[in-house]
Amino acid sequence: MDAPAFLPGLELCRRFYAEAVRPVLEEAVPGLVHSAARIGSGSEVLGYDTARSTDHEWGPRVQVFLSPRDVARHGAAIGALLSERLPKTVCGYPTHFAATGEAGIGVMRATDGPVHHRVEITDPATWFVARLGFDPGEGVTTDDWLSAPTQRLAEVTAGAVLHDGLGRLGPARTALDWYPHDLWLHLLARQWRRISQEEAFVGRCGETGDELGSAVVAARLVRDLMRLCLLMDRRYPPYGKWLGSAFARTSEAASLTPHLTAALAATDWRTREAHLCRAYETVAALHNRLALTDPVDPATRPYHSRPFRVLHAERFTAALAARITDPAVRALPPSGAVDQFVDSTDVLGRAESARAVTRAALDAQEP
Hints:
Layout (H helix, E strand, L loop, with lengths): L8 H20 L6 E4 L4 H4 L14 E5 L2 H18 L3 E2 L2 E2 L2 E3 L6 E3 L9 E5 L1 H9 L9 H6 L2 H8 L2 E5 L4 H7 L5 H18 L2 H7 L3 H22 L7 H8 L5 H13 L3 H22 L10 E3 L2 E5 L3 H9 L4 H4 L7 H4 L3 H4 L2 H14 L3
Parallel strand pairs: 2-7
Antiparallel strand pairs: 1-2, 1-8, 3-4, 5-6, 9-10
Helix pairs in contact: 1-3, 8-10, 8-14, 9-10, 9-13, 10-11, 10-12, 10-13, 12-13
C-alpha cells in the first residue's frame, strides 16, 4: 500500500479524536465528562512536523482527560475498548503503534489484531505534574516558573485542545501562556548576562591563535542571542532541534540571520567578531523598541583596554533589573530559569530533576 499524502500531525489528531476516539468514549460511558487534547511532546505539537516525523512516535495520538474518580472507575476499560473498537486507520495512517527496540518508542504499523493505540487516559493534575512538576490549576509559583524548561512550557501551551468538558485545560494553558511581567524582565536580564560573560572571548581566543575555540564561543553566543530574541518576542524557546525553526518566526529573524550565519561561517576571529557586533546592535535596538527600560546605547565598544569589540551586555542586565518592582523577584539569584544554567537533556527532560536542581540553585546562591 502506498503511503498516504503527508497530513500535518495536529490535523490528523483532530480527525482521529472526532472520527474514532470520541464515538468509542460515548459508547463506553454515555455522558462521560472528559477533555481531549494533543499537547506535550512531539514535533506536531509545535507545528514543525514533516513527512520525516512519521518514522517514530508520530501519528494518530491524543490525550483523554477524565476526573481522577473516572480514571479509576473507567480508565482501564476505556483503554481496552479503544484497542478493540478503534478503526485500523485514520486518513490512511495506522492507529496501531508497534514497539521498537527503544523503550517506549513506537511506530505506526498495520495490524489485524487489537490496536496498540496512543490514546493516553489520565487526569489533568497527574498529567501536568508529570510534564512540569506542578499543577497549574493550583496556581503557578515563582519556583514553578523557574524550574520549568521552556521546551516543556512550549509543549503544554502549543498543540490543540480538542474538547474541554472538564473545563481544566483552557484555564491551565492560560495560566502558563507567559511569565509574569517582572519575572520576564528577570529572565531577559539573565539572558543578557549570559552574553556579557562570554562576548569578549571570541577575540581573546582568536588573539591566541585558537580559532576553533573562538568559533565555539561564537556559536554559544549565537544560540544565546536566538534564545534572547525568542524571549523578547514572548515565545518559549524550544530545545536545540527546533531552536532555528522557532527563531525564524521571530520579528528580528530576517535582519539577524545573515549576521548570525556569517559569524558561524567566519574562519578568522576579526570577521567573526564584526558579524557578532552587528547582531548585538540589532538585538540591542530591539530591546529599546520594546521600551521595557530607559533607552540603552545600542552601539558596540572596546572591551576595556583590550582590542576586542563588545556590546557590554551587562548594561542591559542592569537596566532591566532596575525596572523590577516585585521584591521577591528582585531577590532572586542571578542563575535565572533552569535552562539558563543547565544544559543537560537528562536533567531538563525529567520534571523532578529540573525542580531539584532549580531548588538547589535558589538555595545556594546569593542575589
